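Protocol step 6 of 9: fold each sequence in the batch and record its structure tokens directly after the sequence line. For illustration, a two-sequence batch is reproduced in full.

Sequence one:
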Amino acid sequence: MKQQFEDILPGPESGPSAPVRQLDDQEVADYLRNNPDFFKAHADIMSEIVAPERWTGDGVVDMQRFMLDRRTSEIDELRNCAQEVIETSRSNMSTQTRTHAAVLAAVTASGFEHLVRIIADDWPFLLDVDVVTIGFEPHHAPDLRLQNSDVRQLDTGDVDFFIGKAQDICLYREFTDDGKVFGSGAGLVQSAAIARVRPCIKSPVGLLALGSRGNVFHPGQGSELIGFLVRVLESLIHREMEKPE
């Protein structure tokens, strides 16, 4: 018959003022012997148990101890992975919400100049970065609207230089800028995300640059939301540049 744990504890008749009796090793051992499935029903306790090492002196390894240690390690790894997934999911939800807010702000622009102001003034706050800029390379038919103090004037080939010819987005853990990309905010930027703004008939190739003084961007990081953001911006720019000056 299984022994109830309460059977070896002092009963209520001892009174609330009675001193609490500590169980000795023999009583705990007797209880466990009478309840062999205790750890089966309370498996979580095993990760906190210090099991004895057995060494017979004949070179035989205690496989039971080895398997228990490995199981404990696996449980800890799973717990850490679960926590990382939760934190990543929260971060992704926050980033997605911020991206949507930036897009909604951009689509309210009443013209190209207004769009540029939203990018320079509102997007850093909405996207939780320090600096946001756009820049364009020279075009065969220059448009005066691109001669804006908030639009970076790039040299031919700069977009491919900063992003790479075979890709549309490049993430930098450390980005060194002389002011060509981030202008007066270059000194603040440590990490950066640079995305290609593809050209149309009346708009040259350009880039969108997000800069942060922290370690926000790094290679290998997911860039889907940045890609979505720059594609929306690209469409808005093309729409505005198709309009007469």
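Sequence two, same batch, same settings:
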Amino acid sequence: MKSPYNRIAQSVLKYLTLEKRAVNYYIIVRGAAGSGKTAVAKRLARMLDATYVSVDAILRRNGLEDDWEDGYISQRSFMSANAIIERTAKASMVRGKPVVVDGNFYWKSQIEDLVRRLGVNHYAFKLEAPLEQCIERDSRRNGSIGKDAVIAVYKKTESVNYGVRIDATMPIKKVIDGILACLPE
């Protein structure tokens, strides 16, 4: 029969093992529609063995795209998405995996809420490409949102100054190298 001391010691050892494995950062890849953020975020997540999280997919899967504010998906919808991201991100980091979050992040309140919820170091990157290139990239993909929507999202995203600016007109490898140079080893 195990003594209470042994059970406590095993619990403490299990906790310390999880703490040692835990990752204490996440990455935000943000930018306008068509800036290349999804391609960059997915490849970055694979390279880092990280969990990839798409804000757009969360909004879609949870019916959060229909609540609008000032012509854009509402801040309230993004806060609801952040609650889902929080659960996913914390579970991933405890398992020792960083998280790469991909989204426009055109409300500063959305970024501030996610930072508050997760409470650990984060690295934010804003992919920048000319509007014309964003429109052209969007037009080539399945599920294009259309020129008018790209223009609107571009303007709104540009109004939020947050993250290390990365030139998204470069080849994807150079974009990722620029991001990796800013991350801890």
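Proceed to step 7 once all outputs are recorded. Observation for sequence two: The longest helix spans residues 75-94.
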